[in-house]
């Protein structure tokens, strides 16, 4: 039995053996599926059912509650991303929504009949051998950068992000009950604290920016919730609650967990909490529960009204982006479960299969946050924050069957430049090797 956690990959050609009579729970964007496992035959049934919910470029979030013999020991309740052999939502075969959960609901059994046989393969994630030391980051300078400092007007933009607020609101409605004590770390305008207060909870909202703390106070008063929410003007890294906490909400989420300090802040909270209440007191429930970090090879049109500018682009994942051609699937490179020990460093070496020919000149980074998975109601809530399309220094003409080998190295909370500066990419053609082309000249020639 091999120790550790890896990526579980489902594909059309691979195979897995599992212990008899284990129970396997999967959850996806819309449902939790529980299966009793009796050998590989039953497992392929699960894979077929799962493929129904395959809406994230082939990746869904799964919770495994079983041991895989020989190859991998998956801890109970460990979240792992599951990749299926087929891209996107195949439930309806006509679903145009690439990133949002398919609006229709499906009977697993009716779809299973249409799916080919899928087996399972277990792959261990190996860290890069040649880990280099990261340059020191100037903390004072960083404090002034967007991400650490978020100006008030950008908070007003965040209030307009319907999907973001709905996913938090729904998760809070499921998890927070009257008389619970809820803590929000980084409260901003207080909107997420208000959702918890609406459930009848006592809320402590921690915010270190005085302008925001004051604004949150005004808004909460206007909403008649000021008596339920205590605003604490403090750095969340130093915050210690005076009484036990049932739920912690923290939205310092940036794509790739870059820029904002989600991990550092939650880690400090867990440390402070244990120091205050002891190890025997259970940690609160975290919203979100987990984040899945993914990367994808793309062809990006950097033409802005005739002006070519290959720059990092942030894009909404709620709609199809016309200027971005997907050349391969989203490949997960890390899963962060907020109630577990964090992988603070993302030092990756990964091969991205190419599914479509094109000029690969960028990588798209996507982070899907699992807000809450409710086993009882068989529902799951997730939210992808803005995607990041990062230009490559050199573009490649790629063909289906080839693959892109990528390496990068950054720490959670690092500036984008740390990721882009560490990025190394090469193209592995399947048959004939193709020379790399410069991004600009290739696009302009086209
Ligand atoms: C992305 S905003 C989210 C705001 C609000 N929760 C919302 O959802 O609209 C992150 C917030 O965390 C605050 N923040 C960042 N680091 C913090 C820290 N160390 N302590 C307290 N607040 C912090 C920022 O000022 C900002 O208001």
UniProtKB/TrEMBL annotation:
Keywords: Methyltransferase, Transferase
SUPFAM superfamilies associated with the record: S-adenosyl-L-methionine-dependent methyltransferases (SSF53335)
Gene Ontology terms describing biological process: methylation
Keyword Methyltransferase: yes
GO molecular function list: histone methyltransferase activity; protein-arginine N-methyltransferase activity
Ranges for domain Methyltransferase: 182-271
InterPro entries, sorted: Arg_MeTrfase (IPR025799), Methyltransf_25 (IPR041698), SAM-dependent_MTases_sf (IPR029063)
Pfam families: Methyltransf_25
CDD domains: AdoMet_MTases (cd02440)
Domain of life: Bacteria
Name this protein carries in UniProt: 16S ribosomal RNA methyltransferase KsgA/Dim1 family protein
